[in-house]
Amino acid sequence: MDRKQVILLVQDELLASPALAGALALEGHEVSLAGDVDSAFSLFVGKLPDLVMVAIAVWSEALRLCAMIRGMSMVPIMVLAKRDVSVSRIAAFDAGAEIFVPWPNQIEDIVAQVRAVLRRNSLPFAGEPILRAGDVQVDLRARSVLVRGRCVRLTPKEFDLLVYMVRHRGNVLTYRALLGALWGSNYVKHKHYLHVLVRHLRSKIELDPSQPAYIATEPWVGYRFDPPEPQSPARLESLENDLREF
After folding, report:
1. pLDDT at 1 over 50
2. The pTM is what?
């Protein structure tokens, strides 16, 4: 028998919805419930869930939990929030969330998004298990990334963005194409989501994020992934030392 996928649902009294927990259970998932950040984090460490859903009315606490979880895991994080969408979404993505759902919302819609996230994370890779571009190496099976020979920890959405860019290296990737590939056709106008994600990815793979050598911006169009050719370990160490001194 296949293992049940585990969902950690964090709900405080203001955003609690027994119907949501019940609908997730009916989908065949094991649902662990928590009512605050501390108990949620304890459950997370003990359960190692496949998805974390955060529905906490105190926004600072919701973001704190996202940051705590993202600091130790690549697990997908979905945030449900009753706040101004344009502000809340950016803050949630900055804290490590991948999916933002305005609340209240139709239970069926939320469950469908959960289904899509879990399906995406369980899909087998197709084609070659290792992708390479310049000195970037992506292992699709292990979901690991090496940049300049060093392991880089990415969130699931950062990983998906890097994979898409590596597969289309050298090409200009429009905002619309990237947003559609990462979030779906309903999000092709939300360029700020992509700007946040690219900023985070640059901070992890670029030697100097303020002067990116891997992810170039194509003004008013999108981005282009064109990594430099691999350099010798001695040369890389010299460059990194120069940046630290600067």
Report:
1. no
2. 0.63
